[in-house]
Design brief:
The complex is a heterodimer of chains A (348) and B (334).
Chain A (H helix, E strand, L loop, with lengths): L24 H11 L9 H17 L6 H7 L3 H16 L7 H14 L5 H25 L3 H19 L9 H6 L9 H18 L2 H11 L1 H6 L4 H27 L10 H11 L11 H20 L7 H29 L1
Helix pairs in contact in A: 1-15, 2-14, 4-9, 4-12, 4-13, 4-14, 5-6, 5-7, 5-12, 6-7, 6-12, 9-10, 9-14, 13-14
Chain B lengths: L1 H4 L7 H12 L7 H17 L3 H27 L9 H16 L6 H25 L4 H22 L8 H7 L2 E2 L2 E2 H19 L1 H11 L1 H6 L4 H27 L9 H12 L11 H20 L5 H16 L9
Antiparallel strand pairs in B: 1-2
């Protein structure tokens, strides 16, 4: 705590207790700044700062990234992570957690190489079927009152198994349309940046600034209120799981476009990445506690970790450890921030 | 309220009788894994047309690894509060490498290598407990993060390709030994199941784990040290996973980076299939044993039926979902 020269009270020389209203102004300012990331609308600040810091470090090591092709290259792997994070966010909005996202994405890559090349219509139908599978999982969780962790755990075996049955050995060729679609070169702004900005704006607006968005968040935080306001909980839960399925499909398609071949196990790292993205983005697991734009930024920062470590000559062996430490640090900052803002509100 | 805070806890004789009754009533989840086990065994034997006994003993041997990982997971999950240990696969892999490095293929280093493997689990558990109980990070995230940190060490070991990192040959032959038709390791598994059941049903600590899992607040009023009880469940999970790593490494003849991978979801799956309450508060050690054997029988079934490898996962997944979607067994939903 910084000592100040303008004491409101004579005993300012000794460190004042944190919850006293006679706290020096500088300390108040520090408390104010520290409590910002935990308050409702500002959850995106922490992941934004983190993402910018990572960009700055990468830029300082290699200034050539700051142009069209450099940014395109840097963000090449970000789409699957960000879509997966948004999918995970919809499930956390319902107060649940999705263990199946990784094997689900793997299955989508399998469908793109096994079904899509010869039967486009059948492939699209299969993907719609997968989304229905997600909705069914959500309804089982709701009506059987089982923990989502276990229901999605069971489904993750099913997705993986179907993927392995369709494609026992990784391989195949992703239709060129999908590969082209994620490698477009629009003028001025790289495609990835455009997609991420649109994604962040759309989910932030839809979930935080529309009436039905509030209903969807209410499913996780206060289902009684949602029900008594006349909204259907099963429909809202189905919508949340359906959106998770749709964004899971998008994540899988982006992954196949990036990998250009299919593999049921290709998505296995995205379970951790999506959870980490949600947490770093400012979301919680208590239901309704979401930060949609933050989730996109959180996913983006997780995907920047690989180039960041490469450019700072850290062995890729330690990427997992860095991800783990980063996750813990973010959570520590978050709980510290919540604690400090609770002190702040005690003041008033 | 002296009768609530005198430290005796929920150990009254009446309570104990009720639990015994609950755990022996069909439909409470106690018998279900055994019924499923027998059904899958009959189908497997019918398709194979021979070797029914051998199939079962082999499944019991392999299923003991799932049991070992699953028993630890069961303690954590039973402790409630969203408790789950996702660091199990990484503890197993790291323990395999560390124990093999210590053993260097000699029988003389058997005890130190066992200790080293278990030590890995204890370190991981302490890290998880610090994050969960002191930093208040949700268990699923905390153990995931710890697992990731361990995984980097595993990759470091895997990358250094130490050719002398081999398990003790004595341990290897012990794990795969048979007494007549009965696998020795299967007997170890049954012994472990009985031990876990006794701890959970007959010790103060075991009763405390279930009480804490049912209601942390009520358990605290009953004089149970909630934080310490939950911390001990993670310690048990770490020790079990560490031991599983040493034994799995000895069974496989050497460590590999992904030796623990099947147990990430597998250890949770046996807890679900074993009839434990996934929200905590009710455990079933014999069920874990049956579920472990069931899981390895499913692998055999898929093999003898000449199904594609993926069907093993599909069947396991559908069994989990069927168990969940079946008759409600939740304590809280009545």
């Amino acid at each position: 705590m910084t000592p100040t020269q303008s004491p409101p009270k004579p005993d300012a020389g000794s460190p004042p207790p944190l919850n006293s209203s006679g706290r020096p102004p500088a300390a108040r300012a520090v408390v104010k700044v520290l409590s910002v990331p935990s308050s409702g609308r500002n959850k995106w600040i922490l992941p934004a700062v983190l993402t910018i810091a990572m960009f700055v470090v990468i830029y300082l090591r290699n200034p050539s990234v700051l142009n069209y092709s450099g940014i395109s290259l840097l963000l090449a792997a970000s789409l699957p992570v960000c879509f997966a994070t948004v999918a995970q966010m919809f499930v956390t909005a319902a107060g649940d957690l999705d263990i199946a996202i990784g094997s689900f994405m793997g299955l989508v890559t399998v469908i793109t190489v096994v079904v899509m090349p010869n039967h486009v219509f059948l492939g699209v139908l299969a993907l719609i079927g997968l989304v229905c599978g997600y909705i069914a999982t959500g309804l089982v969780v709701l009506f059987r009152r089982v923990p989502a962790i276990v229901a999605t755990l069971g489904m993750s075996f099913v997705w993986l198994g179907v993927g392995l049955a369709l494609l026992p050995v990784p391989g195949g060729v992703v239709p060129s349309g999908i590969v082209k679609a994620i490698n477009l070169s629009p003028p001025l702004i790289p495609e990835t940046v455009l997609i991420l900005v649109v994604l962040a704006v759309v989910v932030e607006y839809g979930m935080m600034h529309t009436r039905y968005g509030a209903v969807l968040r209410g499913v996780g935080s206060n289902p009684e209120a949602v029900r008594s306001a006349g909204w259907s909980i099963p429909i809202a839960k189905a919508v949340l799981y359906g959106l998770a399925g749709i964004f899971g499909v998008l994540a899988g398609l982006a992954l196949s476009g990036e990998a250009t071949s299919g593999d049921p196990n290709l998505g296995s790292s995205y379970l951790f990445l999506s959870i980490a993205g949600v947490v770093i983005g400012g979301g919680g697991f208590t239901g309704g506690d979401i930060a949609p734009a933050g989730a996109v930024l959180g996913g983006l920062s997780m995907s920047l970790l690989t180039p960041l470590l490469a450019i700072t000559n850290v062995s890729s062996t330690y990427q997992d450890a860095v991800e783990g430490v980063l996750l813990v640090l973010i959570l520590l900052v978050k709980s510290a921030s919540t604690w400090i803002s609770s002190l702040e509100s005690n003041d008033a | 309220m002296p009768e609530l805070t005198d430290g005796r806890g929920p150990l009254s004789r009446a309570n104990r009788g009720r639990w015994l009754q609950l755990s022996l009533t069909p439909g409470s989840g106690f018998l279900m894994p055994f019924v499923a086990l027998i059904l899958v065994w009959i189908v497997t034997a019918a398709i194979a047309g021979r070797g029914a006994g051998g199939t079962l003993t082999a499944a019991i041997e392999v299923g003991t690894f799932s049991l070992l990982a699953g028993v630890g997971q069961m303690f954590v999950i039973t402790g409630g509060n969203g408790g789950i240990d996702l660091s199990v696969p990484n503890v197993i892999s790291l323990s395999a490498y560390v124990s093999a490095t210590v053993a260097s293929g000699s029988n003389g280093m058997l005890v130190p290598s066992l200790a080293a493997g278990i030590g890995v689990g204890i370190v991981a558990a302490i890290a998880s407990v610090i994050l969960i109980e002191l930093a208040r990070i949700p268990p699923i995230i905390a153990t995931l993060a710890v697992g990731f940190m361990l995984n980097s060490v595993v990759l470091e070991f895997a990358g250094s390709s130490n050719a002398t990192a081999l398990p003790s040959p004595g341990l290897g032959s012990f794990v795969s030994a048979d007494v007549g038709p009965i696998p020795v390791f299967g007997i170890v598994g049954v012994g472990l199941t009985v031990l876990a059941a006794l701890v959970l049903r007959r010790t103060r600590f075991g009763r405390a784990v279930e009480a804490v899992g049912q209601s942390g607040g009520a358990a605290r009023f009953a004089g149970i040290h909630v934080t310490r009880t939950r911390a001990l469940t993670y310690l048990i999970s770490g020790i079990c996973a560490g031991l599983a790593g040493v034994l799995l490494c000895a069974y496989a003849g050497g460590p590999t980076a992904n030796i623990g991978d099947p147990y990430e979801l597998g250890s949770i799956a046996v807890v679900v299939l074993g009839g434990c309450l996934v929200t905590g508060g009710r455990s079933n050690a014999p069920g874990i044993w049956a579920a472990g054997v069931l899981m390895s029988l499913v692998v055999t079934l898929v093999e003898v039926a000449h199904l594609a490898a993926g069907f093993q996962d599909i069947v396991e997944g559908l069994i989990i979902v069927a168990v969940l979607a079946g008759p409600t067994r939740s304590l809280t939903s009545k």
